[in-house]
Amino acid sequence: MSAAPESSPRSWAEVDLSALRHNLSAARELSGQHVMAVVKAGAYGHGLETMARTLAREGVTFFGVANVGEARQLTNAGVNTPVYLLGATLPGERSEVVAHHWVPCLNTMEEARHFNQVARDAGSILHAHLAVDTGMGRGGFLPADVPAALEAIRALSSVRVTGLGSHLPAADEDVEFTRSQFDAFDTLVESLPSRDEFEYIHLANSAGLLGYRSRTTNLVRPGLLLYGVSPFDDDNNTFRTVMTLKSRLSVIRELPPGHGISYGRTFLTTRPTRVGTIGIGYGDGYPRALSNNTPEVFIRGRRVPLLGRVTMDQVMADLTDHPGCTPGDEVELFGPNIPVSEIARKAGSIPWEVFTSITPRVHRTYLE
Ligand SMILES: *Cc1c(COP(=O)(O)O)cnc(C)c1O
Asked: Which among 324, 326, 308 has a CA at the least distance from the CA of 316?
């Protein structure tokens, strides 16, 4: 076998770790609170382990993950920062939670009682946060039930409630509702005689951190912001782009007027057209829903439009007015020149989904 050198990847995501560090310190400065770095779903597609190691070195207070599988990945990677489970646990997962000292949120009394039993059997004391449902409808105790729940859990010898948390369903969409939610949560916390026993009190995601102030919380849970994107779809100069999705021009051809481009022939050339084919598609997570919504890509210092549908592995760009491109040229699909929010909007999606849709075929490259 000949030892041919390995070619560089066709499509890749450049992840700027100094931008990540910058965004973390901006989140700290803006909130003045502890940070739980939300790294669920592979750190929003940026790669769980490298992002977690980078953030752990900056001393974040918690990592927020969706489930025990993600918590296990962090523990196996040797990350020592406390891990918080953002969603409810299943009965069969609880002994693993107790064994690794991951911090779950308690959503029901059944969950609390079972955790107590599991922790007692393991000779351990479980530290958990009480989840309060102030409007998300996904889990937790209703505010009116919180005092009684806290009292009932205090009677459990192997469970200690060390925190109190709630979540915001509409902080980037409904200011009035969110303000009342903040007030309801703060009022609840202020009414609890045991409030000083809680080490951490938390409510805000990225939008909550940017747009609102709490009287009682001391921890924020940003995800999207750490990755450099504002949920408010505004120009943000405070946060730096972390991920740039890139690919390369593979072939450039001249096509006559009236020639179809891509599946369904939804686009027909209206003039002699230079068509550049780019080696990325929905199989990489570049949204197919962008098709014919005039998405643009960035090549050699300029935006050019895409033509026709996004295919699984390739898309076509109009290079007629952008001479000088050659096969092999780098193409930015989103990043500093094409905001991911713009791609999300044109795809009828949201930046969270665009990030987490990037598939394993896309190589992640980290820049210190
Ligand atoms: C995902 C999640 C977050 C982070 O949300 P962003 O909008 O990405 O900042 C915070 N809290 C909870 C409970 C979550 O599930």
From this structure: 308
Residue 42 predicted with pLDDT over 90 = yes
- The answer on 258 and 139 residing in a single domain is no
∠ CA 220-226-229, nearest 5°, is 115
Q: Are residues 221 and 98 in the same domain?
A: yes
Give residue for tokens 């050699």: 300
Structure tokens belonging to residue 36? 């739980």
Residue 324, class by beta-carbon neighbours within 10 Å (0-12 exposed, 13-18 middle, 19+ buried)? exposed
Task: Report the CATH number that the domain containing residue 339 is assigned in CATH.
Answer: 2.40.37.10
Q: What is the model's pTM? A: 0.97
Q: Which of 205, 209, 229, 341 to mutate to test the pocket of ligand 1 (most atoms within 8 A of CB)?
A: 205
pLDDT digits (tens, 9 = 90+) for 277-293: 999 999 999 999 999 79
Closest atom, ligand 1, to C-alpha of 66:
15
Selection from 4, 82, 99, 13 nearest residue 50 by Cα: 13
Q: How far apart are CA 330 and CA 327, in angstroms?
A: 9
- Residue 233 clears pLDDT 90, i.e. is over it: no
- Cβ–Cβ under 8 Å, residues 184 and 11: no
Alpha-carbon distance 299 to 249, whole Å? 9
Q: Is residue 57 part of a domain?
A: yes
Q: Residue 24: CB partners within 8 Å, gap ≥ 6?
A: 35, 37, 55, 58, 60, 226
Rounded mean pLDDT of 280-309? Answer: 97
Amino acid occupying residue 110: E
Going through 123-208 in order, the beta strands assigned E by DSSP cover 126-132, 159-166, 200-202
Cβ of 33 below 6 Å from ligand 1: no
Domain shared by 269 and 333, yes or no: yes
Distance CA 27, CA 356 (A): 21
Q: How far apart are CA 330 and CA 328, in angstroms?
A: 6
Which DSSP string corresponds to 113-126?
HHHHHHHHHTT--E
* Cβ 129 under 6 angstroms from ligand 1: no
Atom number, ligand 1, closest to the C-alpha of residue 167: 13
In CATH, what number is assigned to the domain containing residue 167? 3.20.20.10
Examine residue 15 and state whether it is found in any structural domain, yes or no.
Answer: no
DSSP 93: G
Number of domains into which the chain is organized: 2
